């Protein structure tokens, strides 16, 4: 369980985080979503106890990160932004160092390192210096140190930032595998990531919580939720007839000569559009219903907030 209550932080008198409160339960992967400068990293640093809050409290599994820092950090795995590791160390030596700091010795130490080398598929680079690794491997080393002690809580700051599509996929798969039984927060400004790994979205802008919802609920807030797109290569679609379908708010041109019918909030257009298509005898190449557009919801809720 992660609980933030009224967290505030200002730098040189400028507020970066303004009274954030939320909780994340075991088994949930919460996506911290927000534009650049929204306050995601600052919040994560306060949740992990690496930065003191000006006001408010952060608790991990009921432990206050400021008042019980050692006990709280035992339960926590943290991947800071950019996954900083000691570049001059070899992968195995670095993990050995982290394991010793975590208090492991003897067979348990070897087992822990072996397990994360397996989990993160790091065997082929175990003797390589960290500063010579590719970004993908570097991120996996960062994740390995974060999960070495099998923590209940994982806080991962932009774990896929700067990775190529294959590496992104691998890291997302790993987060999915780690999720059962753990409480995880992942920060990102990549919208596709939210749908791919998060069961819940905490949308942050200007240091405030703008939305706390499932990805599906956020999509439902899109003006394109249940929008209907039609395309025909043989028939000239009559825009006026389409605009007159009950519940149509707007008709917009879409890619490839298609038309998108934007619904009035809460209206299901498909049955009426279908009936019109049948009545007019239009031959269609495409008739699709949209699940909503996260990018549009994101823009609307965070308008003008990038810094
Ligand atoms: N140490 C610091 N000193 C001064 N200002 C800071 C410091 N750390 C963060 N800030 C400011 O606080 C605000 C929030 O920054 P933060 O890094 O938390 O945002 P973010 O959402 O993580 O952004 P990004 O997606 O770009 O990483 C920004 O305006 C940033 O410039």
TrEMBL record:
Domain of life: Bacteria
Keyword ATP-binding: yes
Keyword vocabulary terms for this entry: ATP-binding, Nucleotide-binding, Transport
InterPro entries: AAA+_ATPase, ABC_transporter-like_ATP-bd, P-loop_NTPase
Domain ABC transporter: 2-231
SMART domains from the UniProt entry: AAA (SM00382)
GO MF entry, a single one: ATP hydrolysis activity
A Pfam family that the UniProt record links to this protein: ABC_tran
Protein family (similarity comment): Belongs to the ABC transporter superfamily.
Protein name (record): ABC-2 type transport system ATP-binding protein
